[in-house]
């Protein structure tokens, strides 16, 4: 946490400490949820520091003790969905450009993925060159539970996880801890939360690897790695119905909670997510995947399940979304295809 966080009301604190550029997401009451303004501040600072020889390393962290970032402002997204507003489309366009900038950043970019890291928080951290998790880390891409798809490059990251572990996490909308994040390839190093201030101080006057050498801890156990055999067997199909059938037929006790999770989530989101993961595997890189995610996101904003999922989980909080269609059997293949088609006029706007 920045020395000024808590008294400074700027949504992102930008400061230089020695040879370290520090970016602090500074909305602790909202678990540092991203706004369009914050995306712009981050983008501007990173572009300035890229050409500044006095900055050797960049570090991203979150103010407060709850987490790095809880994602984007889905209440605003819901408002755009029901009113036809374009703000969310503009936000995603700039947010995805920021994700791309981070992925190819010319200097070491250290992301402290401490505490809660959801959705858009993954986008500003999991594409970093040095991704740090702690014993408090809880990373999630919960989008299929609210009628959306993993975005901010999430389908790129999860499609390149070992075996079908990324498919499992995406479709079940699950959260993972430090050990699982390292196993999935979402993180690089494990550091105790109590040692993060020391790491920041070390980075002010020495290279990243030298600083990390003083604080890195052994890799913790991964539950996902232990269940990979049945996960790979169940989730290897490109057909959503086949995955559900395999989960129902599995004799592993952990398969039933996974099947129940899929049964709760939006059938449309599950089908679109599964296809997005499979196509992402064969794409040339993150930018191509982000283009695909943008097309999907814009169409989901204008669809039924995404605003309905936000309503049920965040607005009314009745936890009873009415998906359309309500079951996987009711899915129309042509409707799923439409999420992946070019945006035409919208793309050139």
Largest beta-sheet details: 7 strands, mixed
End-to-end CA span: 39 Å
Q: Order of strands in the sheet with the most strands?
A: 1-2-3-5-7-10-11
- Average pLDDT, rounded to a whole number, is 95
Secondary-structure-based class equals alpha/beta
Q: Estimate what percentage of residues fall within beta strands.
A: 5-15%
Chain-wise SSE layout:
Blueprint: E1 12-17, E2 20-25, H1 36-50, E3 57-62, E4 67-69, H2 74-83, H3 87-103, E5 109-113, E6 116-118, H4 120-123, E7 130-133, E8 138-140, H5 154-159, H6 165-172, E9 175-176, H7 178-184, E10 189-191, H8 196-203, H9 208-212, E11 216-217, H10 223-226, H11 228-235, H12 240-249, H13 255-264, H14 267-281, H15 286-301, H16 305-315, H17 333-338, H18 345-348
Parallel strand pairs: 2-3, 3-5, 4-6, 5-7, 6-8, 7-10
Antiparallel strand pairs: 1-2, 8-9, 10-11
Helix pairs in contact: 1-3, 2-16, 3-15
Describe this structure in words.
It contains 18 helices and eleven strands. The chain has 349 residues and is an alpha/beta fold. It has a single domain (1-349), classed as 2-enoyl-CoA Hydratase, Chain A, domain 1 (Alpha-Beta Complex). The strands form two sheets. It has a seven-stranded mixed sheet with strand order 1-2-3-5-7-10-11, with helices on both faces. A four-stranded mixed sheet has the order 4-6-8-9. Helix 1 (36-50) runs parallel beside helix 3 (87-103) and helix 2 packs across helix 16.
């Amino acid at each position: 946490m920045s020395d000024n966080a808590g008294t400074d009301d700027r949504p992102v604190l930008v400061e230089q400490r020695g040879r370290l550029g520090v970016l602090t997401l500074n909305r602790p009451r909202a678990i540092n949820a991203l706004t369009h303004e914050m995306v712009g501040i981050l983008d501007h600072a990173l572009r300035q520091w890229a050409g500044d020889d006095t900055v050797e390393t960049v570090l991203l962290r979150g103010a407060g003790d709850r987490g790095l970032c809880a994602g984007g402002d889905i209440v605003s997204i819901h408002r755009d969905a029901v009113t036809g507003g374009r703000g969310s489309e503009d936000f995603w366009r700039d947010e995805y450009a920021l994700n791309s900038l981070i992925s190819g950043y010319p200097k070491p970019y250290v992301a402290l993925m401490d505490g809660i890291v959801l959705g858009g928080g993954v986008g500003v951290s999991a594409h970093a060159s040095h991704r740090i998790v702690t014993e408090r880390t809880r990373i999630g891409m919960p989008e299929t539970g609210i009628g959306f798809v993993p975005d901010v490059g999430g389908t790129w990251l999860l499609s390149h996880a070992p075996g079908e572990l990324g498919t499992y996490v995406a479709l079940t909308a699950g959260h993972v801890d430090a050990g699982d994040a390292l196993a999935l390839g979402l993180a690089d190093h494990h550091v105790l939360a109590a040692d993060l201030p020391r790491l920041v101080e070390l980075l002010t006057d020495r290279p990243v690897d030298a600083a990390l050498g003083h604080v890195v801890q052994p890799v913790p156990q991964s539950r996902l790695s232990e269940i990979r055999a049945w996960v790979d067997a169940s989730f290897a199909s490109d057909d959503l119905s086949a995955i559900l059938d395999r989960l129902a037929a599995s004799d592993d006790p952990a398969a039933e909670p996974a099947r129940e999770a899929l049964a709760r989530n939006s059938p449309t989101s599950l089908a679109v997510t599964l296809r997005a993961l499979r196509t992402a595997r064969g794409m040339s890189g993150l930018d191509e995947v982000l283009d695909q995610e943008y097309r999907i996101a814009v169409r989901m904003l204008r669809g039924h399940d995404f605003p309905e999922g936000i309503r049920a989980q965040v607005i009314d909080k009745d936890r009873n979304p009415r998906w359309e269609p309500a079951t996987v059997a009711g899915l129309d293949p042509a409707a799923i295809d439409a999420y992946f088609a070019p945006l035409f006029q919208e793309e050139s706007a």
